[in-house]
Design brief:
The structure is a homodimer of 218-residue chains. The first copy, chain A, has 218 residues and is α+β, with helices and mostly antiparallel strands. Chain A contains 8 helices and 11 strands. Chain A has helices at residues 3-6, 15-24, 107-116, 118-144, 147-162, 171-178, 182-194, 210-217, and strands at 26-30, 35-38, 45-51, 54-59, 65-71, 76-77, 93-96, 100-106, 166-167, 198-201, 204-207. The radius of gyration of chain A is 19 Å and the shape is elongated. The relative contact order of chain A is 0.13.
Chain lengths: 218, 218
């Protein structure tokens, strides 16, 4: 688990740049639930995900959450170093959604590289464009898909992610992901159950008619 | 009207880079309503706005629109050259919302500069971060603000933009801006009228109680 394996532009860096990165990178192992970044309060650096899963979300004044995107093995979390860029004018929170092994590049080190290397700056551009694209996808979902379609899509995505037909997730947690109230989720899940698409048990949702969910999500 | 006046990082470019830009930049004068960019179909280059106003929006399959952000004098439109970056995976449309004078930097010229200059690449990063921030603001609006607050805020923003208490805009157009149906806008405007906050006439909305709108928007 080293930068040479996980940092995509490693081969395009100079020896001096590689040494700078190698001398400053640190490993972090964090348990599920760890809050790694919270708005503009902290800004430690970039995280490279060696294993595990991170979730980026926003939080309203009333404590409501919306999941913006998730990051998986080999993804790079740029927004945990968002203070590097003056024009990022929003607060984002990042948490470990599973136990995760991370490589952390301190923000000052990365910022220096970005300021001197067109390759690093260009790569950073692509990273930001990827996250921007995920948020744009979310905007389209919110504006143009009704809630039943969004929920069906969410259940299918979770099932693919967990590689299981049984999701161990509370209605509360789904509501947080989707930026809605728990009651709204519960009502729709009960409708799905009445249509035979899911089976509900305490803390568990079983996908019982995947084809119907897929046709709804489409 | 030249690059030296309108391109913010002009002073930080080399002589060779300035010559490259000066030899490729073109002036365009476009009337209100001109569609300058439409998804991935065209990708001409960056527009620098010398005068006028551009609007960036997305379009659903059914023809519904949502305004993402607007660009004003001295702003730079990066998304009309979105094909420069492989990771931009969404389609955006850009139209002139007023008669506009633009400087256009062809995308290949800009891409070459960005690939060789950390300064240009870093500046591009800041441009993208600005637009990303505007979209994040929109996400927060949609998720957490009820429609009455959003509409009040929209009317106040339009009034500030036009420097007038009387807005010449149709309900249809407002609906397009906000990604909702005309009926929803009309219903809410009638409620605002009944509360004495606005006066409605054909093709016109007069702000009659700005304080009430402001307190609603807050």
């Amino acid at each position: 688990m080293g930068l040479a394996d996980y940092f995509p532009i490693w081969d395009r860096l100079t020896d001096a740049e590689r040494r700078t990165l190698e001398n400053s990178v640190t490993k972090r192992t964090v348990p599920e639930g760890t809050l790694l970044h919270n708005g503009s309060n902290d800004c430690v650096g970039l995280f490279i995900i060696c294993s595990g899963q991170l979730r980026a979300f926003i939080l309203s004044d009333e404590g409501k959450e919306v999941t913006l995107y998730r990051l998986f093995e080999r993804d790079i979390c740029l927004m945990s170093a968002s203070c590097m860029m003056a024009s990022i004018q929003f607060d984002i929170a990042i948490e470990a959604e599973k136990d995760s092994e991370l490589l952390m590049i301190p923000k000052d080190v990365y910022k220096n590289l970005m300021d001197s290397s067109a390759i690093v700056a260009g790569y950073t551009n692509e990273l930001m464009a990827s996250r921007f694209s995920e948020v744009m996808w979310l905007v389209e979902q919110i504006m143009w898909k009704s809630f039943d379609k969004r929920l069906a899509e969410f259940l299918l995505a979770e099932s693919a992610l967990e590689q299981s037909e049984t999701l161990k997730i509370t209605h509360e947690k789904i509501a947080n992901h989707m930026g809605t109230a728990r009651e709204v989720v519960t009502r729709m899940l009960r409708y799905f159950q009445s249509e035979g698409m899911v089976g509900l048990a305490r803390g568990e949702i079983r996908l019982t008619n995947r084809a119907a969910l897929e046709s709804l999500a489409r």
